[in-house]
Amino acid sequence: METVQWGIIGCGDVTEKKSGPAFNKVPHSRLVAVMRRDREKAKNYAQRHGISKWYNNAQELIDDVEVNAIYVATPPLYHEEYTILALKARKPVYVEKPMSVNTASAEKMMTASYQEGTKLSIAHYRRQQQLFKKIKSLIDADAIGNVRLVNLKLFQGTQPGLIAQTETNWRVDPKIAGGGLFHDLAPHQLDLMLHFFGTPLEAAGISLKQGNLYQADDLVTGFIRFENGIVFNGIWCFTVPAEEECDDCEIIGSEGSIRFSVFKQQEILLTKKNETEIFRFELLEHVQQPMIDSVVKYFMGVGPNPCSAEEGVETMRLMEVFTKKK
Q1: To the nearest whole number, what is the mean pLDDT of the chain?
Q2: How far apart are CA 320 and CA 326, in angstroms?
Q3: Which has the closest alpha carbon to 150: 64, 75, 252?
Q4: Is pLDDT of 184 > 70?
Q5: What's the predicted TM-score (pTM) here?
């Protein structure tokens, strides 16, 4: 594979800015076809983005001989079906987060990748951004000593600005999204914890519907104990007043702390001995571009998988543990 020639299944809002244009901006990568069930919307997207082919049938896009890799960017309900169809066609897949609607479905996708001998990568793209690479390097260099615990809070109002606007609010329909806004946003945060700290030994959580605004739960708490003794505590609430909104993560070590926002992505505060050093980063035009660059290298056989199916399954498992009803 000298050039990764992409076909997108599900060219909705997430692909307009975050990912879609980046496929033509990284080396050895080209976006050649898109698919959406509404053919006119697919055509409109293709024409606006300078793409020569559009489809309203996923199998037709997968069967296109010019397409040699697939990006699945549909709502989670359809991730399993389209990923497995592409893998069976021996076309590597880059699939949006959350990996699927539940752990069992994600495991089927992982198994299909094994069985077909075809590559699968998950769009937990923050781990490839410079801000989060810097955090990992600080942790690995013991910049705050031995990490003891992590406290994470994500509080949003009933109309959160972090959520992409769509024609239908499918993100709060558990049948389509697997859960609610927690399932849309927490995969980024939990994947980073796995990326930073490794294997979880145990996890537990509580999930509630407090606002009764939709079917999905709107408050989730979660606890993780990692094999290296690090403890994570997270809380997510999506019904707070505007003045209480926050996006904050603090990693506390034996000699200091690292504080940052997962979604604002602008700065890291490193505090030791009452002195704070600030690392600032420019916002990316296309937030997935560094990840897409790494996925292209992986598909071409010149780099590692930047986020494996196994890692995607583990993130799904943690979300399921946090939100499981007894």
Answers
A1: 95
A2: 12
A3: 252
A4: yes
A5: 0.93
What tokens appear for 52 in the block?
A: 């020569």
SS3 240: coil
Q: Which domains does the chain have, with CATH numbers?
A: 4-125+287-307 (3.40.50.720), 130-283 (3.30.360.10)
Sheet holding 275-280, edge to edge: 200-208, 219-226, 231-237, 147-155, 246-253, 257-260, 267-272, 275-280
DSSP 8-state class, residue 37: S
CA dihedral sign of residues 226, 232, 238, 242: negative
- 136 φ, ψ to 5°? -65, -40
pLDDT of residue 1: 76
Burial call 165-202: b when 16+ CB within 10 Å, e when fewer: eeeeeebbbbebbbbbbbbbbbbbbbbbbbbbbeebee
Where are the extended beta strands (E) located within 36-173? 53-55, 69-72, 93-95, 120-122, 147-155
The answer to whether the CB of 6 falls within 8 A of the CB of 61 is: no
Cα distances (Å, whole numbers) of residue 198 to 115, 194, 229, 236, 289: 26, 5, 11, 22, 25
- Say if CB 193 and CB 112 are below 8 A apart: no
Distance between CA atoms of residues 35 and 78, nearest Å = 13
pLDDT tens digits for range 125-137: 999 999 999 999 9
Single-letter amino acid, residue 33: A
List, in sequence order, every residue forming a beta bridge with 247; answer none if it has no partner: 154
